[in-house]
Amino acid sequence: MAKFWRTVGRILRESVWIVIAAAVVYGGFQGFKLLGDRRPVVEAALVDRPITLVETSDLVPLTGPMPVRGDGFVRPYRSVAVSALGGGRIVELHPALIDQKGQFVAGDILVRLDDSAERASIDQIAASIAATEARLDLNQIQLDRTQTLRESGSVSQGALDQLLAQNGELLANLEGYRAARVVGQLALDNRIVRAPFDGAALTKLAEVGSVVAAGQSIAEIYTSGQLGVDIAIRETDAALIPGLFVGQNATAVVSVRFAGRDIVWDARVTRVAPSVDPATRTLAITVEINNVHAGRSDDTSELASGAPPALINALARVVISGDQPERTYQIPSTALRGGDAVWVLKQGALAILPATLMHVDGETSYVQINSPTEGARLILTALASPIPGLELRDVAAVTTAAVMD
């Protein structure tokens, strides 16, 4: 009996806890429902989206040739080593070689070697010629007299033949002496070295009184009025230079910085390497400065040293006039999107125009745009979602309107 009542008590206790749990769940449900019924109703409303401001610039067609740039060192366009065909002692040097200042012109005597032996030989040959000519004159008189006597039978034919043989021998000797005189004159001429072109001295390797061997370098001379700069350019840049491979001389500008000022010369392309450098994949081009003394500078003040020439081995900046394709525009390189398009602001909306990259010059790119660009402005600002037709406003126009207000 006691066991029965214990079981009944346990069942009652469990039933009480079940009722309490159910009451808590029901109360929570009703409270949540009550809060839901009392919550404020939020109605959807249209929000005005702000128009994106962008920075723009003019989109102006290219009006001149594209610049093809390169750097190189100034060098003589032509330089040769001065040497004599024969050896000997130097007795005279041109003043331009002695102090390496000043100029010489083609044909000037640059070096004279001791020629006393050659002159003595020529004098000896001249004496032999004179003696032979005198003997030949005498022999001719005797020959004329003998021929007259032979006609009268006063002398024998043998005497006449002997004089004829002597005359031929004297004539042969005379021609030999004359040939020796020509050889002697050539040897004398080889004792001097004449300038092959107008120029100046680059280096001097011997002094007056020095004994030099045949072919030994005495000095190095160069075309001071004609210099050159070798630059290396990429194949794509070479393709932009008009007539580069067909003999035309494209124009260029060479500038060298000297004493804080830029000195500029007009130049032209005269040489192009026939092969591509295997390491750098570039072409070597020579730009020639024809008139070194025609250099100009924005700074017109005179230097105490005088106007300098194009300094040899100085670093030079070269700008070659490239091609000028139609519908080509000069834009900042950052404004070229994806390498093949530009963004423009046209009638207040974004337009994406296909563009072909023609040339890159530092931070500037030259692109060809075949689409209409009337009234369009180049967009310089980056956009997160560049969708054609996106409404945009020019920040310059907004600023101008604010100032006017």
Topology, please?
Blueprint (H helix, E strand, L loop, with lengths): L1 H37 L13 E3 L1 E3 L8 E10 L2 E4 L5 E6 L1 H4 L10 E5 L2 H37 L4 H33 L2 E3 L5 E5 L6 E2 L6 E4 L4 E8 H4 L12 E8 L2 E12 L9 E8 L25 E7 L6 E5 L3 E2 L3 E6 L2 E6 L1 E6 L2 E5 L8 E3 L12 E3 H10 L1
Parallel strand pairs: 1-23
Antiparallel strand pairs: 2-22, 3-11, 3-15, 4-10, 5-6, 5-9, 6-7, 8-10, 11-14, 12-13, 12-15, 13-14, 16-21, 17-18, 18-19, 18-22, 20-21
Helix pairs in contact: 3-4
Overview of the structural elements:
The protein folds into four domains: 1-43; 56-62 and 326-404, conserved putative lor/sdh protein from methanococcus maripaludis s2 fold; 67-73 and 222-321, Beta Barrel (Elongation Factor Tu (Ef-tu), domain 3), CATH 2.40.30; 116-189, Helix Hairpins (Orthogonal Bundle), CATH 1.10.287. By secondary structure, it is of the alpha+beta class. It has six helices and 23 strands. The N and C termini lie far apart (102 Å). Strand 18 and strand 19 (349-354) form a beta hairpin. Helix 3 (116-152) runs antiparallel to helix 4 (157-189). The protein has a six-stranded antiparallel beta barrel with strand order 3-11-14-13-12-15. Strands 2, 17, 18, 19 and 22 form a five-stranded antiparallel sheet that branches.
